[in-house]
Design goal:
The structure is a single chain. The chain contains 9 helices and 5 strands. It is of the alpha/beta class. It has one domain: Uracil-DNA Glycosylase, subunit E, CATH 3.40.470. Strands 2-1-3-5-4 form a 5-stranded mixed beta sheet, sandwiched between helices. Helix 5 packs across helix 9 and helix 6 packs across helix 7. It is globular.
Length: 256
């Protein structure tokens, strides 16, 4: 638990009030999207929390400078698979500035991607460690670290247009989605519905290994695969094993 909030300010210039339509319409590349995401300040509770954590640091990282801003997606603009998680970890991505980087969940995910030839390195320690993804992009449904890892419904809704735009920009190449956890699963289907994808009815339920095929507005089929999130709660208890995660990724990336 964090100590009482100190009185300080980490206000920074260029912050966006929200991902409004005008802002999103001007974005034509993923590089532009990533730059816009990290300027977002639309959710006061999340802004306050992520910046507080960046000042009141975990003792083991007290000498490090935390990122303390929204965390954008990571991976090539021509990715054929998109991996979707919930939100940045308070002392992981919120510290390092790169999604699934600097914590045990990231070690599991990048370790699996490395075993399958989809990542240059088997670990992900910092945004400057030389990591590279091949044909895969990783992003989150909510781009700021939330208290207790639980964003509020209005925060999820406010962040949703970023995911909508990210998928839109990936449409020429994306073939599959690997979804880590139930919230990301629900969020992805909501986003695809907004993008006029044809979705099976009833909408498929989340589970590890759950699969669904959807048809995009371009007429192409795409695969959605569910996986338990590589959180310590799931990996320490054996609910998710390396083999299970490897298989879920392989099924997703092999879809043609």
């Amino acid at each position: 638990m964090l100590p009482p909030r100190p009185t300080f300010s980490m206000e920074w210039h260029g912050r966006l009030s929200s991902p409004n339509a005008r802002t999103l319409n001007k974005i034509t590349t993923l590089s532009e999207l990533d730059l816009a995401v990290i300027k977002c300040g639309a959710c006061p509770r999340l802004v306050s929390w992520r910046e507080e954590v960046a000042q009141v640091k975990r003792k083991s990282y007290e000498t490090q400078t935390y990122w303390g801003k929204p965390v954008s997606g990571f991976g090539p603009a021509d990715a054929t698979m998109l991996i979707l998680g919930l939100a940045p970890g308070a002392h992981g991505a919120n510290r390092t500035g790169r999604v699934f980087t600097g914590d045990r969940s990231g070690d599991w995910l990048y370790g699996s991607l490395h075993r399958l030839g989809l990542a240059k390195l088997s670990t992900s320690d910092s945004k400057d460690d030389g990591q590279e993804l091949f044909g895969v992009r990783i992003t989150c449904a909510v781009h700021c670290a939330p208290p207790d890892n639980k964003p509020e419904p209005e925060e999820k809704a406010t962040c949703a247009p970023w995911l909508n735009k990210e998928i839109t920009l990936l449409m020429p190449t994306i073939k599959s989605f690997l979804v880590l956890g139930n919230f990301a699963w629900t969020g992805l289907f909501a986003t695809l519905a907004e993008l006029d994808f044809i979705i099976p009815k009833p909408r498929p339920k989340f589970g590890h290994g759950a699969r669904a095929e959807v048809i995009g507005p371009d007429g192409r089929k795409r695969l959605i695969v569910g996986s338990y999130h590589p959180s310590q709660q799931n990996t320490f208890t054996g609910k998710l094993t390396e083999a299970m995660l490897d298989n879920a990724i392989k099924v997703s990336v092999d879809f043609r």
